[in-house]
């Protein structure tokens, strides 16, 4: 097979050289595997989430509060989100119900003039 040196010094030198060579070969294998590994597609940035549309909202027009459903198109972007309980309370305290979305109906409030 192979003729190895008979003395310990040269055998140790050979062992060191083989160890270093094996380490380089293993590192090269890792590098090639890394290079050849299919790359996962870059994660797509998630679009910013729109804030949840509130169920009810309060809008101040001048000094008079007005109650709207959260999806009312007549409010623009200045609608302050409120709970159904607060919407009922505001309506009971004299706030106007929007003439477009009529929040008083689903809230079970009495109709004006009834």
What does this structure look like?
- With 114 residues, the protein is an alpha+beta fold.
- It is 33% helix and 15% strand.
- The chain has 2 helices and 4 strands.
- It has helices at residues 8-36, 84-92, and strands spanning 56-61, 64-69, 80-82, 96-97.
- Strands 3-1-2-4 form a 4-stranded mixed sheet.
- Strand 1 (56-61) and strand 2 (64-69) form a beta hairpin.
- The longest helix has 29 residues, at 8-36.
- The chain is rod-shaped and about 110 Å long.
- The chain starts with 7 loop residues before the first helix and ends in a 17-residue tail after the last strand.
- The relative contact order is 0.11.
Share of β-strand residues: 5-15%
Average residue pLDDT: 86
Helicity, in percent?
A: 25-40%
N-C termini distance: 111 Å
- Which structural class do you get from the secondary structure elements? alpha+beta
Shape from CA axes? rod-shaped
- Report Rg: 38 Å
Count every helix, treating DSSP H or I runs of 4 or more residues as helices.
Answer: 2
Poorly predicted parts: none
Largest sheet: 4 strands, mixed
- Could you give the order of the helices and strands? HEEEHE
Lateral arrangement of strands in the main beta sheet: 3-1-2-4
């Amino acid at each position: 097979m192979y003729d190895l040196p008979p003395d310990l010094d040269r055998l140790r030198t050979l062992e060191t050289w083989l160890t270093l060579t094996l380490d380089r070969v293993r590192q090269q294998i890792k590098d090639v595997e890394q290079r050849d590994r299919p790359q996962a597609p870059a994660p797509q940035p998630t679009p910013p989430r729109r804030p949840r549309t509130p169920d009810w909202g309060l809008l101040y027009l001048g000094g008079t509060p007005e109650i709207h459903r959260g999806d009312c198109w007549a409010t623009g972007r200045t609608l302050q989100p409120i709970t159904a309980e607060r919407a009922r309370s505001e309506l009971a305290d004299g706030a106007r119900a929007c003439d477009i979305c009529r929040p008083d109906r689903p809230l079970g409030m009495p109709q004006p003039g009834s």
